[in-house]
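Submission sheet (multi-component)
Chains listed below:
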Amino acid sequence: MADDGDPNFNRRLTEIADRITVALDQLIPPAQGPEADLMRAMRHSALANGKRMRPFYVIETGAMFDAPEKSLLRAAAALECVHCYSLIHDDLPCMDDDDFRRGQPTVHKAFNEATAVLAGDALLTLAFKILASRETHQDPHIRLKLLERLADCSGALGMVGGQMIDMLEDESPRDLNTITRMQRLKTGALISYSVEAGGIIGGASEAERQALHGFAHDLGLAYQISDDLLDATGDEADVGKPLRTDAEAGKANFVTLLGVEQAQERVRLLAAQAKEHLAIFRNRANILLQSVDFVLDRTH
Amino acid sequence: MADDGDPNFNRRLTEIADRITVALDQLIPPAQGPEADLMRAMRHSALANGKRMRPFYVIETGAMFDAPEKSLLRAAAALECVHCYSLIHDDLPCMDDDDFRRGQPTVHKAFNEATAVLAGDALLTLAFKILASRETHQDPHIRLKLLERLADCSGALGMVGGQMIDMLEDESPRDLNTITRMQRLKTGALISYSVEAGGIIGGASEAERQALHGFAHDLGLAYQISDDLLDATGDEADVGKPLRTDAEAGKANFVTLLGVEQAQERVRLLAAQAKEHLAIFRNRANILLQSVDFVLDRTH
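Outcome: structure written.
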């Protein structure tokens, strides 16, 4: 286990989360006009307390390549817009029907369903707007690469496809292959994007991009299994959202299929493997290495 | 009135609609894997019979500037993806709750609500993917301009903002100012984008862009008023969707506020004004001129 008290790591994590919140506050249009509730709902979601792990990976990966800070911050904010939009839509009554998220009412509870659908739509659109803007990077090819890969990772062949698989559970019970595919698309694709974006902005070599991709692949899978472990064994008061949801809905997940012990063992193996991918970066990857244990220790 | 039988105009309109359907069929991922219903739902919406007026304007405006056909087709397909996504989400039970669209069941009726939310999300994402791709135009600045303006016109300060205003009707009755603002955002922004996109790809001058913007502004407003007239006076069997919806819901619109005759007079004035904007293009704008009467004659 990493030392959770590592002041350097925790300081950087908090600092990045704060910078992302400030950036999103500036990027989301002010709540004005008869449509002001739309912007309020966007803010309710995007400015809520979160660990901001995806932005963290954009910024820390980019920092390994001395990439421009402003570019990293804007790419990270765009990615967080996509993440928040996906949470808003996933929480809808016709999807996971969740009432609480990040310790506060979900958007459709705080506002209403129509506003939640629209706030998600607007956050997704804003993400592409941010990336297309000249302020994100002076090189148009880098902006376009960031855009195209974000669309790939978040669309029908990425995150949305994964959520679609997740919605089909009622119709046919899932096996481990289907759950792995679902995870890779639903949560894995955006985690991969987070390290890829840092590499795109930083001009990573092909070998470096492969290493980052392998790291994100293993970390993403480990994260999902640890999330299922949290759902099975965590404490609701600590986590800030209802647990045991999969078990109550009779949904198969990594823990129901593998059992707690084997699931824990997989997380350990994947964590070790994720770290090995970073060997080519030597001590430049220290923060990313520390992040693995932090991300997988879901008690904080 | 334009001669509805003008063979040149009608042939071009049909030809463009067919080309857009073929393009969307190629651009939407094939229905494969456990998530195949997602792609089926995207296709159900995007490949349905439609007049494809927005794509028509992208392509015919671009043709005035001899812009590359492939670029225009891809930009038009991207715009149609955004239009279709907005229809899917607007039809949801929590929004307008419509069961039929373009003469067939809406996506949430043919599939289910979760699939409809996700299919809309995926079509929106696909639009940006299409525009970011090198195949859309070799000049990265043109792709980025297309992207940024599409995000502006379809996001919180454009179409989604307009839909938000439309959803607030239950809470406070709308006056003419609010309805005009709603229309400008909800339908006007994408109509403006359709002629703007042709101009971006074709390299229109500042004066030409202003003229196109004025044309789209007047046409968009006239279109919305004619849509309200259709809702009040049209024939359901001809139109392929339920009518009298605003009246039944007690919703104010241009016709309930102005009356049928004054609404018709406004459409006539706006149509004349729209055509005047095109004077600087002389006979290059013949097809756009003919389109005005076609678009506003909602009996076909």
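Remark: The mean pLDDT of chain A is 93.
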